Amino acid sequence: MKNKKINLLILFIAMVLVLYFSLKDDFVGIIKELKNVKPIIFFTAILVFLLSLLFKAASLKTFIKKHKKNYSLKKAYQMTLIGQFMNGITPFQTGGQPFQIYLLKKDGIRISDATSAMIKDHLAYQTALILVGLIAITLNSILKISVKNHYLYWLIFLGFIVNFVVLIMLLVICLAKKQGIKIATKIVHFVFKFNIVKKIGTSEEAVNKSLENFYKIGIDLKNNKKTILKAIIFNVLNLTFLYLIPFVIFSAIRCNEVSALESFVSTAFVMLIANLIPIPGATGGIEYGFLQFFKGYATSSVVVGAMLLWRFVTYFLAMMIGFVTLSLRKEAKKDENRIVY
Questions:
Q1: How far apart are CA 100 and CA 83, in angstroms?
Q2: d(CA 118, CA 206)
Q3: Helix, strand, coil shares of the chain as percentages rounded to 5?
Q4: Between vectors from CA 115 to CA 109 and to CA 119, what angle results, nearest 5°?
Q5: Do residues 84 and 318 touch, judged by C-beta distance below 8 A?
Q6: pTM for the full predicted model
Q7: Is the distance from CB of 58 to CB of 73 less than 8 angstroms?
Q8: Do 326 and 41 contact (CB within 8 A), yes or no?
């Protein structure tokens, strides 16, 4: 509870600062642009965002249905919306998956099975993020779409490398042979000799057990290549629609200077950088990235107005819908004989 309050306080302070620095230079001009928004096109942007989450839910359903065959796309979509809320209030979007595992347990799915499904889903998403990021970098190098800012390009490169390393580490742990697990176990044993690690509250046995679970997941992935491929495709579609939202937003704000391709590439870069920001929702950094990558397409008042609308749709509205979904969620009927571990 204490951590949640701290996260919300940090988020609130960051939001206030973002609004202040966004509006202070041309408050009247930005408000004027926001008043001229085309409601139908803006509503289309919301629909595009909800459609992107539908593909994300389809990926999640792909893995959960192995453990619960009657698990519907509707339930997976609700779980995805709740994940948006929990990710939005925690640093590095770390709160969504643990809470989703907790909810899946309440739905009658064993914790081990729920954890396995979430890890596989994360692997599919991480792979799609790298693929889409690589496509965006390639398109930009050929077509010179994005603005020329060497500092931002270094951040893009760093963001891509960090995400790529995370993916490789997960794959190595999952796909390593038992000898690899033994080596990892020895490393864990060495690390836990230091008192500073013991203070974290995680036991050496728990980490070793997690490594074994990763290995089991890797075996399952090897035997179900079509499943993981389908999930990756779903996540690529999820990210593609997500990255096209600024294109719709700029159209809603009566600016036709941003093409769908420019929206895709620029937003991909923004999201790669956003993963480096430890503040809940990457607030502050993600807005700065948006303004920098889109500033060459229109006046500052238009770009700031588009950024505020974009953040409302993809972050604040997402959290509100997720919170309402969580509040209205109905738990599955309890079966006293079911195994939950």
A1: 7
A2: 18
A3: 80, 0, 20
A4: 135
A5: yes
A6: 0.79
A7: yes
A8: no
Determine the Cα–Cα distance for residues 181 and 175; give it in Å rounded to an integer: 10
Spatial CB neighbours of 94, under 8 Å, sequence gap ≥ 6: 87
Name residue 193's amino acid: K
- Contact criterion met (CB below 8 Å) for 284 and 270: no
- The DSSP line for 160-210 is HHHHHHHHHHHHHHHH--HHHHHHHHHHHHHHTTSHHHHTTS--HHHHHHH
Supply 304's token pair. 């700031």
Which positions ≥6 away from 127 have C-beta within 8 Å? 167, 232, 235
CB 57 within 8 A of CB 75: no
Sequential pLDDT tens for the chain (341 residues): 445 555 556 555 655 655 544 555 555 556 776 788 999 999 999 999 999 999 999 999 999 988 888 888 999 999 999 888 887 776 656 556 778 888 888 888 887 788 888 888 888 998 999 999 999 999 988 888 876 666 777 888 888 888 888 888 777 766 665 555 565 555 555 545 544 444 444 444 555 565 566 666 767 777 778 888 999 999 999 999 999 999 999 999 988 889 999 999 999 998 888 777 655 555 667 888 888 888 878 788 888 889 889 988 988 888 888 888 888 876 555 444 444 44
**Residue 90 has which token pair?**
């925690």
Rounded Cα–Cα distance for residues 11 and 274 (Å) = 15
Q: How far apart are CA 244 and CA 47, in angstroms?
A: 12
- Do residues 103 and 79 lie in contact, with contact meaning Cβ atoms separated by under 8 Å? yes
Which structure tokens are listed for 68?
């619960």
